[in-house]
Design a protein that fits this description.
It contains 8 helices and 10 strands. The protein is of the alpha/beta class. The protein has a 7-stranded parallel sheet with strand order 6-5-4-9-7-10-8. α4 runs parallel beside α8. It is elongated and about 55 Å long. The model has no long low-confidence stretch (mean pLDDT 88).
Length: 214
């Protein structure tokens, strides 16, 4: 059975990343040697000293970022204003499960190859197409139904009517929400809840994307 660290490594390699690997003798035996540039073996204690999160498995990969393509404005897109790497990773995983591969990130949002984003996305971050937000994004999305998740006063997700064949899903910052300019240009969507004020950004994203694209 593949461990979390090995699954992340497999996901990276399957999407074209060719890292140099530093690991222990135990993990050396488990890594597929065909796809690696170089594999170095060292003592576990030495490797752990250089890891950002010491509780992870003793596997360190170094190399250039995977080659990425420009996002396609002819397909569904997700726009992320969130700054929480766990939320971002979860949304990426949900999106890719619904065949969305194009993302627009707020300037302050974590990189998709941030360690916590990678972990919460289960490696789905590798190979996505993405760009940082700019002034022309809204103009390029003129053929999309722009749907923004809001905690209150939006259209009920269960009854919303979609008129266009392409969608742009907008998910806001955990405390600041979505910039006013984006709110004005989008259709606001709300998930009705009981006993709580609102859902987390990643939970709301999972429900909205599934409801619209299923």
């Amino acid at each position: 059975m593949r461990t979390e660290g090995l699954r992340l490594l497999d996901a990276a390699i399957n999407r074209g990343w060719k890292p140099n690997i530093l690991t222990t003798e135990e993990y050396f035996e488990k890594i597929d040697k065909k796809h690696q540039e170089k594999i170095f073996v060292s003592e576990k204690e030495i490797i752990k000293k250089h890891m950002l999160l010491p509780k992870l498995e003793p596997i360190i990969g170094t190399g250039s970022y995977p080659a990425r393509k420009k996002i396609s404005y002819k397909k569904n897109i997700v726009i992320l204003f969130s700054q929480d790497p766990t939320n971002i990773g979860s949304i990426i995983r949900t999106s890719r499960g619904h065949d969305i591969n194009d993302f627009i990130f707020a300037k302050e949002a974590p990189d998709p190859y941030n360690l916590l984003v990678l972990r919460s996305s289960a490696g789905s971050s590798f190979g996505i197409n993405y760009c940082r937000i700019n002034d022309k994004n809204l103009e390029m999305l003129c053929d999309h139904e722009i749907l923004t998740a809001v905690a209150h006063n939006g259209a009920n997700i269960k009854t919303i009517k979609i008129k266009k064949s392409k969608n742009a899903f907008v998910f806001g910052h955990e405390s600041k929400g979505v910039p006013e300019r984006w709110l004005k240009e989008s259709k606001k969507v709300t998930i009705k809840t009981k006993n709580i004020e609102s859902l987390s950004v990643s939970s709301a994203a999972a429900i909205i994307i599934n409801q619209i694209l299923d």
